[in-house]
# Entry
Amino acid sequence: MNEQLAKVAEAMVAPGKGILAADESTGTIKKRFDSINTDSTEDNRRDYREMLFRTTGAMREHISGVILFDETIRQKAKDGTPLAKVIADTGAFPGIKVDTGAKDLAHSSGEKVTEGLDGLRERVAEYVELGAKFAKWRAVINIGAGLPSHNAIHANAHALARYAAICQEGGLVPIVEPEVLMDGDHDIDTCYNVTTWALKETYLELFYAGVRLEGTILKPNMVISGTTNSNRAGVEEVAEKTVRVLKNCVPASVPGICFLSGGQSDEEATAHLSAMNAAYDMPWTLSFSYGRALQHAALNAWGGKAENEAAAQAAFAHRARMNGLAAQGKWTEAMEKEAA
Ligand code: 13P
# Structure
């Protein structure tokens, strides 16, 4: 079992490949669809996601796994093929978001703790039957006045570790995602310190829970200035500080680190990843597990209309290729213009 998990984790970070996060909850996908004036019906959600998963060339070449929401892993494509099989037929692994969302943390105003441990063992067994090879759990850490608290850092790390252990027992590779949010006007060094704290605590709890790091993937935020900071750090500083935090906190036995995009623009997310891979020697593979930064252009090109599918697939294929290059440190800004 351990060897099998390690093999899957390694394949998830095969050279030039990364993960497509398409696991928006019903509430989040509605927000995305609202932005293109499209109703969030079950059929529209299916059509949109099927369109992405059937971008076959890009999927084969640049996508190692797709994170799905509970509804999607049970859905069938228009021709009746389960969407999980459409994904698997491209060579990518279907994965599943298993947390049930970040909820208010008691006695910690402004902070969240992620729920979903109750019944998780049974749900993991069902998802394995439905074809999942890996899972995701997202913890959210908020930076603010006096935040985060030790309570939030600890409660979230503890939940991540319990989740990861249950997944490994059940045969799924856990993606461990402690996300320090970009929201706020904090500077990059504040993000550096909070990310260090969150990762130190996470790896301590993973150790206590007996999690085999070889069969895990880390999905962290990059070390980056707050969204509304007036003097945001540039690409080289983000790359340098992110790599420094990771080297200080993430054991070398972890096979891969796949970043979330967290609200960065499409090109920023690509440029940061490429800068890290181009300039630093690291014990793990650094790649992507982007939601918005892989889908944003495709969602807008689609606009909820079947006649735009080819344009939307082209937009998705382009971002997948750019990020595949970034995962090897080979992306340049000129490549964006060439395509345009
Ligand atoms: P973003 O890349 O849009 O942050 O989403 C990734 C994800 O899966 C967050 O859990």
Summary: Residues 129 and 162 are 21 Å apart (CA to CA). The chain has one domain: 2-337. Strands lie at 18-22, 63-68, 93-97, 102-104, 112-114, 134-141, 173-180, 217-218, 256-259, 285-290. Residues 21, 138, 177, 260-262, 290-293 surround 1,3-dihydroxyacetonephosphate (CB under 6 Å).
